[in-house]
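Quick illustration, no need to memorize.
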Amino acid sequence: MPNKMKNIPVIVEEKLFLYPFMITPLFLSDEKNLATLKNAVENDSMIMVVSTKDSSDSQESIYKAGVVGNIMRKVPLPDGRVKILFQGAYKASITKINSHTPFLADLEILETIDSDKNAPLLKVLKQKVKTLSSMTHFFPPDLLTSIEDTEDADRVADLVLSSLKLSKNKAFEFFIETDLEKKFFSLIDYINKEIEAYKLESEIKSKVSSKIDKNNKEYFLKEQLKQIQKELGTDNDKEEEIAEYRKKLNNKKPFIEADAYKEIDKQIKRFARLHPDSADSAMVQSYLDWVLEIPFEKVSKKKSSMSEVEKQLNSDHYALEKPKQRIVEYFGLRELLELRGLLGKVNSGVILCFAGPPGVGKTSLANSIATALKRELVRIALGGLEDVNELRGHRRTYVGAMPGRIVQGLIDAKEMNPVMVLDEIDKVSRNFRGDPTAVLLEILDPEQNSNFRDYYLNFNIDLSKVIFVATANDVGNIPAPLRDRMEFIYLSSYTPQEKFHIAKKYLIPQELKKHGLKASDVSINDAALRLIISDYTRESGVRNLRRKIADIFRKVAVRILKESYKINITTKNLDEFLEKKVYEIEKADKKDSIGLVNGLAWTAVGGDVLKIETIKIKGKGNLLVTGQLGDVMKESSSIAFSVVKVLIDSGFIKTDEEQIYNKFDLHIHVPEGATPKDGPSAGITMATAIASIFSEKKVRADVAMTGELTLSGKVLPIGGLKEKLIAAHKAGIKEALIPRKNYDRDLDEIPDEVKDSLKITPVDKIEDVLKIALI
């Protein structure tokens, strides 16, 4: 056998670690290995098989020793791989290897160094292998026989090593060791450690088996883990958890009621008694984690300051003078009660509820209050809430039980007196799970909320320090008992001029900051901004206006990155930054028409101008009303029809023939047909349309009207006047007819720019309306 060999092809195998005595099938698919194999076959050469340290097959990643042997057989496979049968012959180390494909290496054969101690060491090794084989399945019976019958020490060592579950690095250490005595000592030591490990595992299994049902595999594994932790000295975790819970409770003791302390203390004691793997233990631990997070001991020390609230409101909001004044009054009362030590002893006022269309600033007013008082803001969305337990908490008997949203809000705020916004309180609904409004009554009642009971906590909690603020779009949807607990502050639609100032003062600076832009990067001139407000948004508030400004700034940011110059937005280039116009309110017709009347309507998103259309068809006096109208609006059409009949009979309305209303059928339509509509305020509008169609008189196109009509012809007051008149102003209406009582009572709420551009005329009866509207 030569000591050195030159230009031996090297096959790299990732998974296999071979020994000289093995005859092994190898499946080759890698291009480098196939090129190496081709070289070996062509030159009728032996090959060397080495293993890799990682998944790579580069020179740096292969072990520098392996097995040299012969190719006994080569078989091409259908999938493109090649199978060879490899017979190992010698161990060899690589002294030199080329850097290209195929790998060719110079080798030096590894020769073992014998010792006179090898015979007794071999005997000890065989005994240890026999002991280990009785504990494990590492050694098949035929392999044990081969080990027992073989006297070649080096071969026995390799047979044992090939069967042990060694890491590649460990196997390589044994592989390159040529001193047999040293190798035997290391191998015997390794097997001894394996024997001790399996003995320990057997002891753990033995201890566990006396405590458990053999068929319960999951429990067995947990008990096994517990015994392992005990052996390692790490099963004191539960004692540490209990000590931590006890410490937290004692820290909170001065700040909580006796019944709360008693309940938490009882649960800690119960947790200590329960087995850690029981379902009850997990439930109690979850309870303790929740309840000890409630910040009983933390209260914001900042006192109510009317002046700071007023300053913050004026800083954050343009217009909204009446809402801001009422909020200032509310906190002025709280400040006075605090100064005189009466806060909490007397009823400090009702709950404020900001009511109005989306985007007018309801939630942002609450933000300003929280900022001024330096308290956390907690927002609880009530939209679509049906389950009463969402607010009051689920009883702990239910799977997945947790505290209600109110208690979770306190935990999130990390203080007991945050500003808590009950958002969309008008959208709470009742069903078989209970009535959430009943819980809201308790939460919002100053006489009751100091002892609010959460079912999950199972003790009372004081909510009297919380400042509750509610928001709603439509007050009419709030149940009467709940409305009684609240004072409504109405936020009406913004006028175009107010939107303009809000955009200039707040929206544009805020969006510049959000988009990483500076005032020197982009400007929107006043005309372009007014065009965005009038033609690109459809809303009462400014939420969509903010989105449109954000749309512009995103495109500006892209242009600056590409072109790096200041961009000026004007009416001429605005369409480059915004895609399409959305006309909010259709402009008034310039042409007067028969049977077409401008009516003023209130919606949840602000005012609108509805063009009520009427036609007559030969018939018998029937009335057809379309446009998805509610019952009240249908009744208004019937009342309007009857009132017009009376006026025709009395001669106030002149017609071509007597009792003309019995000779024609009327069809009244209120666009848009897909939008549901209801309410009595279209009464005078429908009567005007019917009077126009029967008298053949045109209706002034520059007049709009709103008012409820009675059978006697009186005009009754309506709601939502501000939104309706703003809509008339936006539509270019010249004159608006409104009920006398609204004129006397509500005109001071109408913005000056609307009053300046619009003639507002009070009417008492339908005759007044017809004299102005018909020409």
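The two ends are 126 Å apart (CA to CA).
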